[in-house]
Amino acid sequence: MSKVLKALQTEANDAIQSTFISLTKRLNYTSSPLLDAVEYALLSGGKRMRPLLLSITGTMLSANKQDINVASLAIECIHSYSLVHDDLPAMDNDDLRRGKPTCHIKYDEATAILAGDALQSSAFECLSSMPLSEYAQTKRHELIAILAKASGMRGMCQGQSLDLLATGETISLDDLIKLHQLKTGALIESAVSMATCLSPTANEDTRKLLSVYSKAIGLAFQIQDDILDLTSDTATLGKPQGSDLINGKSTFVTHLGLQGAKDALTVQYEEALHALEQLPYNTEQLKLFTQYMVARTH
Amino acid sequence: MSKVLKALQTEANDAIQSTFISLTKRLNYTSSPLLDAVEYALLSGGKRMRPLLLSITGTMLSANKQDINVASLAIECIHSYSLVHDDLPAMDNDDLRRGKPTCHIKYDEATAILAGDALQSSAFECLSSMPLSEYAQTKRHELIAILAKASGMRGMCQGQSLDLLATGETISLDDLIKLHQLKTGALIESAVSMATCLSPTANEDTRKLLSVYSKAIGLAFQIQDDILDLTSDTATLGKPQGSDLINGKSTFVTHLGLQGAKDALTVQYEEALHALEQLPYNTEQLKLFTQYMVARTH
């Protein structure tokens, strides 16, 4: 990861921490075992990919910093809740996440289910109740509509359901792409959509190009995930290596082979860069982000 | 239940069904096993207490019918998701709900977790994306703020967490009241708050009186629940009788005895009616609702 991007990632992580603290104060979240579990899930590191993407895109499009932070916290709440629930014994049954015990191991299953549920509510509390710029005030319900769509029946939950159904089954490449577009792509795309929604300057052409861009990196992210599951090791990944294969999941690697998956990754990478090149903005930071997405090691 | 109230309940139930169908069409929810589970959880009957309360209050306050239906569906999505998750083996471990297999028994645990998650997203998709009257368009984020607050760290999830922590423990009556205000009261209160939010006519006095009213019936609801758990039978309740005692839970009955709980119910009932009497509206239907709340047998 480049120094510039690393600094932006640290900034995005700090913004999540401080915006969550303001949210707990403003909304009077009082100390409780549930809040402990929520903080454990939300604030124990992670790559902050979605907030980083939202922040870089929003800054490029002249969105207000506070608006970006509020939207970033909301999307990270959704992402964190999905990890907590996906790790549950009835789902992927993972004990380790980011090198630490998963939420249900650290606490218990009931607390993990509730922490995930509360994180989802917090995402929408955040978007509906946290202070925003005058411009973004009028965009609250649009931001909520984008995030709710990406989270539920037309996004992440549907994708996770299809993923569970596909476990142990052979599914077509088209179905695999659709599954991942819903499971991880939709939320990544929503980071870009929310940033665009917060921009007073982005026009329809920009919106369309960024949509192409975010679809490409969403897919690239998953292809790289599948490659890493096979080629990286547990210490680097922070979760068991080879777990997709052990769980009998179709992946881009099982479909295309390792080289084929790498080639498919390159195709998405180039499509993403091509979309960026056509934008009338300084896309340097988004290019760094895109390079990182396809070159990341965990 | 009086004939008038029964008719209103049927109407509220029909509105949930038809509004959910319009939502699935408008938002392109396609057929899937997850949608089956969501529909199973949402559309398999239930008393529709919150939509009924929202609808009666909203109608009394001259809110628009379509707005009421959208808000009612949203609140019922939250309520349904909470039942699906509360029934899970790691939580209350109930096999029966409304006389039918619970979601994780009918499908499986993973599907039940995801169906609950998706129902929560749908609640916020519904409030942010479904058509509303011109007046309510400007109230979307307020409606969302009310519902998100009632659902998460300051409401239902926090209450359920406190309830689990209290299982097998003796807690004070004050803590029991606080627990239930969060676990079930917050969502019942939000039905009234959302209805008031949708009203172009309700003033601050009305808002305050209805807040007193909804707090009283929220507590009355739980006291009656505890009484029924001891005095009703499985066939009438649609769930195992005496499960609170078996699970070692503090209830209003364990604290106050059966007669003491009945007396406490009367106090809340009278407080609710007293608030209604001061309202400058025709409160006949709300009175019927209140009578039903304290006299219900399941």
From TrEMBL, chains A, B:
<dbReference type="GO" id="GO:0016114">
    <property type="term" value="P:terpenoid biosynthetic process"/>
</dbReference>
<dbReference type="InterPro" id="IPR008949">
    <property type="entry name" value="Isoprenoid_synthase_dom_sf"/>
</dbReference>
<keyword id="KW-0808">Transferase</keyword>
<comment type="similarity">
    <text>Belongs to the FPP/GGPP synthase family.</text>
</comment>
<dbReference type="GO" id="GO:0046872">
    <property type="term" value="F:metal ion binding"/>
</dbReference>
<dbReference type="InterPro" id="IPR053378">
    <property type="entry name" value="Prenyl_diphosphate_synthase"/>
</dbReference>
<dbReference type="InterPro" id="IPR033749">
    <property type="entry name" value="Polyprenyl_synt_CS"/>
</dbReference>
<keyword id="KW-0460">Magnesium</keyword>
<keyword id="KW-0479">Metal-binding</keyword>
<keyword id="KW-0414">Isoprene biosynthesis</keyword>
<dbReference type="Pfam" id="PF00348">
    <property type="entry name" value="polyprenyl_synt"/>
</dbReference>
<dbReference type="GO" id="GO:0008654">
    <property type="term" value="P:phospholipid biosynthetic process"/>
</dbReference>
<dbReference type="InterPro" id="IPR000092">
    <property type="entry name" value="Polyprenyl_synt"/>
</dbReference>
<dbReference type="GO" id="GO:0004659">
    <property type="term" value="F:prenyltransferase activity"/>
</dbReference>
<protein>
    <submittedName>
        <fullName>Geranyltranstransferase</fullName>
    </submittedName>
</protein>
<dbReference type="GO" id="GO:0005737">
    <property type="term" value="C:cytoplasm"/>
</dbReference>
